[in-house]
Amino acid sequence: MSDQNTNGAIAPADAATGPAFTVEKIYVKDVSFESPNAPAVFNEAVQPELQLNLNQRVQRLGENAFEVVLAVTLTCKAGDKTAYVAEVQQAGVFGLIGLEPQAIDVLLGTQCPNILFPYVRSLVSELIQAGGFPPFFLQPINFEGLYAETLRQRQEQGETSLADSEPAGNA
Question: What does the mean pLDDT of the chain come to?
Fold first, then answer.
């Protein structure tokens, strides 16, 4: 792992080696599983209905460090009852040194969530099975396609890139 100062920025000595993309830390930021209608919901003989909500947040931690949080909420309904709600926020701290702002934006919007997704997929699956429900496996997600759509929307609204946000704690 690269040396970091207290605000999460990569140490200047690393900058001398040229452009770099590093994974500094991967961690669970928040996790929740609820089955409000158990055990009665286990006897429901209806086709379950699933709703998936996917969200990504980026926060600048320092000059060269970013936190990316990939959040997934999976809600399963059996008829008019909620069978379960699984929520996972998987996070990572990524170092991006010596890159153009556009390249940083692309990495934050595509590669970082691609790195976090297998952790999210595994944790969601484990939560659902531990809740007494059949296995569920999140299907692969095309983060490049989602990024392209987000970029199109940002351009229509005149918004800046993810990498232009201010470092956290520097008000």
Answer: 87
Radius of gyration in angstroms for the set of CA atoms belonging to the chain, rounded to a whole number: 19
pTM for the full predicted model: 0.81
Say how far apart CA 150 and CA 109 lie, in whole Å: 9
d(CA 74, CA 86): 5
Closest CA relative to residue 149, chosen from 109, 115, 112, 111: 109
Domain region containing 121:
12-164
Say how many domains are in the chain: 1
In this structure, the number of other CB atoms found within 10 A of the CB of residue 166 comes to: 9
Cα angle at 131 between 26 and 40, to 5 degrees?
Answer: 155
In angstroms, the CA 31 to CA 21 distance is 27
DSSP 99-143: --HHHHHHIIIIIHHHHHHHHHHHHHHHHHHHTT-----PPP--H
